[in-house]
Specification:
Layout: H1 2-6, H2 31-50
Length: 56
Amino acid sequence: MAMELFGARTKGYALGIRGYQFDEYEEKLSPKAQVNLEKTIEFIAPLLRKWSFPGG
């Protein structure tokens, strides 16, 4: 899509954060998923600041 729209090749990355409880009536993270989110932020924030990604 980037090539079609902007004439540029880009890399894409996917990030998964594990969830533990899925309740169709509630829209909040479980305590375990909240910990996973916090660890993810600790991991990804420095990479975003440096614009340096593993394998990139």
